Amino acid sequence: MASGRVRASIAKEFSLLFRDKRLLAPIIIVPVVQVVILSYGATLEMKRAGAGVCDMDMTSETRRLISAMEATGYFKVKLVSSPENLTEMLDRREITIGIVIPHGFTSGRNRDLQVMVDGSNTSLGQTALFYFMGVMLKGFTQTAPIDDRVRILYNPCLKSSWFMVPGVVALVLLVFTMLLTAIAVVKEKEQGTLEQVIVTPIRPWEFVLSKTLPFIIVGAVQVSVVLAVAVLWFRIPFRGSLLVLACFAILMLMSTLSLGLFISVITRTQKQAMMTAYFIAPVLVMLSGFIIPLENMPKPSQAIAMLNPITYFLIALRAMFLKGWGFRELWPQALALFAYGAVLLSVSTWLVRRRVL
Amino acid sequence: MKAVILKEIKHILRDPLSLTVILAMPVVYLFLFLYSITFDIRGVSLGVADYQMSSASRKFIETLTAQGYFDLKGYYPDERSLLRDVSSGKVKLGLVIPRDFDENLSRGRLSYAGWFEGVEGNSTNIARGYLFSASAGYVLRQAVSSGQHVPANIKPRYLYNPQLRSSWFLAPGFSAIILTLIATVLTALSLVREREEGKIEVLRTMPVNPYGFVVAKTIPYVVIGLLDFFITIGLVALLYRVPVKGGIASLTGFTLLFLVPSLGLGLVISSLAKSQREAWLLALATTLLPSIILSGFVFPVESMPFWLRALAEAMPARHYLVILRGVMIKGTSARELWPQALVLALYGIALVAIAGRRMRGWLRGE
User: Fold this and answer.
1) Same domain, A219 and A274
2) Are residues A65 and A117 in the same domain?
3) Is A322 part of the contact surface with chain B (CB cutoff 8 Å)?
4) Which of B120, B159, B326 is the closest to A117 by Cβ?
5) Residues A229-243: pLDDT tens digits?
6) Is A14 on the interface with B (CB under 8 A)?
7) Domain total for chain A?
8) Could you tell me if A106 and A198 lie in one domain?
9) Which residues of chain A make contact with B105, given a CB cutoff of 8 A?
10) Cβ separation of A23 and B278 shorter than 8 Å?
11) Set of chain B residues whose Cβ sits within 8 Å of the Cβ of A277
């Protein structure tokens, strides 16, 4: 009876997985820690950035400007007596931006503000400069000369965490299911128990199913944990449907589990399997738009990213979280993920038959 | 001690696949990451719904696209069709020029509305900065041409990285991340493997100094780590023309100081884990995301909440990145970086000592 055989081997994998009770903790805790670190840490908001000001004019006007800078909360102003001090402080990373207000600034004799920006951190330096320009424009004209009513859709506070936390769903699915699958097979190779499996009349697809099903459940638990922490604790909006998310997660699992099987085919020991997974994971993560969106990558990289199943999953995840999209808008991504999953799964099952069983 | 080192070297050489992976990692990563990931955001896609259609409004749009920061995808007949394309992400910025644009402008007021597709915070933030500085420039030019009083003439100068190349900013970060990833995983599997394979029992019968044993096991990996460091820095300097202003000698010294705590962290993980699988997961959890998020690689540590800043300060990668940026981009002298060096050295000693203590416990059969 095929179904009895499948049930027995699945039961075996489950007992193997949960016998190692210490593994349950990382399965739950690692995703939670990742969401927490990303939610609090992944912010490009500039707060308390060091700003050095050398005020050579010393009028009430310039003092008003300095307190206006402080009042924004973006800057922590340090007053210095000479421009040389500013360069020294930039060297020591004490300030991000240094401003020299020349003599005669208020009277209009010298309107040139010298601004030195730390270019070694390009994004922070630019942000500091733009914010400073904003303070200047507001502070020196009675009415603000720019009436900017451009609204930001989906992520009004520009929180990077809203962009990145949905990606954690993809990250944990990839890392855990890929590695645990690979190890489940390689461990049998290493310990020599694979021979015992080979002599049983198990079919390749049954073997693959029994090796992957426990990790589908691990994946489902992890997705739920990430979703719960992100939505309930960090109030990251999830505007889509849970059912659509579940469908996408299963499509994604087809690819990650197959990758795990691939690794198990090309490696002999657990250490090799882990090294290979360790090597592959950051490439798949970085070239999927996890940190920066695809549009900002050069064209050849975009082409490579299109070969990466995680790319499609990430696009779908973010659209589900922030835009509330469903299958009507995301069918191309679903189709692509399904195609990848189907191809990878058939190839890896074929490889398992040829090289393992 | 020599025997342990030799044995570990033999073990490394016996597994060519793992060794290849370790040496290929920095090459592949640097190529892919430095090439693909860039913050030089150019050509932000722009859609315009212009209700004024005057020469002034066209000139304003030209100002936005002139420097290549915005790429005009097209004009839209109304707000609705523009908003639809912003929502779907076809254009990143949808700009609406109101009917009273010219009238406002004659009163010295530049007015516009619209939407950013803001899913990703970083590029939206930068694009908003471009929009703001282009508008500010436009307003100033208008003011000057109509003979008005100029509020201020801001002359920005970027120090250390005058052309504001994002590769100069990202390359030290990638180097720190790559070395953290490699160093920690190298040792994370070492002790736990011996225990899983039952070799600790064999060691118990021999007169082994646990601290010496742990140090000896680390030394071959320090060499591999240094090799990876030279590959990384070589590629960064030759291919991406990132300078090493402070000199390679002092950088190598600092890297040694950084490798010890990173390898030590791996050892501690290895001594805490019960299985290789657990060690691997712990290593990945403590390195991959923290080294990207908390090292100051992209996200400013100063803006983080207090407890997370404390956690970031506890990351060796954070201090190493300060050193790398300082020595490479700013040309900071080694003397000024002593606080970072001291922290790394103390971490190194502490972590290796903790691993040694665990080892001593095992040797006594605890």
Assistant:
1) yes
2) yes
3) yes
4) B159
5) 999 988 889 999 999
6) no
7) 2
8) no
9) none
10) yes
11) 280
Residue A25 lies in a domain: no
B162 touches chain A (CB under 8 A): yes
Is residue A1 very low, low, confident or very high in pLDDT (cuts 50, 70, 90)? very low
A227, A169 contact by CB (below 8 A): yes
The two structure tokens encoding residue A249? 């997660």
Say if residue A256 is in the same domain as residue A165: yes
Q: Assess whether A133 and A276 both reside in one domain.
A: no
Question: Do A194 and A130 fall within a single domain?
Answer: no
Beta strand pairing status for B44-50 and B93-97?
parallel
- Mean pLDDT, chain B, as a whole number? 85
Residues 213-232 (A) with a CB less than 8 A from some CB of B: none
Q: Cα separations (Å) of B192 from A284, A355, B85, B277?
A: 28, 29, 54, 10
- How large is the ipTM? 0.78
> What pLDDT does residue A177 have?
87
Q: Residue window 264-283, chain A: list those with CB within 8 Å of chain B.
A: 267, 269-272, 274-279, 281-283
Q: Are residues A335 and A203 in the same domain?
A: yes
Of B188, B228, B186, B187, the closest CA to residue B24 belongs to B228
Q: Report the pLDDT value the prediction gives residue A3, as an integer from 0 to 100.
A: 67
d(CA A319, CA A336): 16
Residues of A in contact with B135 (CB under 8 A): 146, 148
Q: Which span out of A2-11, A37-46, A78-87, B197-206 was modeled with the highest average pLDDT?
A: A78-87
B120 chain-A contacts, CB cut-off 8 A: 155, 160, 163, 292-293
Residues 6+ apart with CB under 8 A from A187: A270
Structural domain span for residue A266: 159-353
At which of A110, A139, A168 does a domain end? A139
Pairs of CB atoms within 8 A across A/B: 329
pLDDT single digits (tens) A152-187:
888 887 777 888 888 888 988 888 888 888 888 888
Burial of B14 (0-12, 13-18, 19+ CB in 10 A): exposed
CB nearest A116 (choices: B114, B129, B159): B159
Whether residue A153 is contained in a domain is answered as no
| Residue A73: its H or E element | none
Residue A39 covered by a domain: no
CB-based contacts of B11, cutoff 8 Å, min separation 6: none
The CATH number for A112's domain is 3.40.50
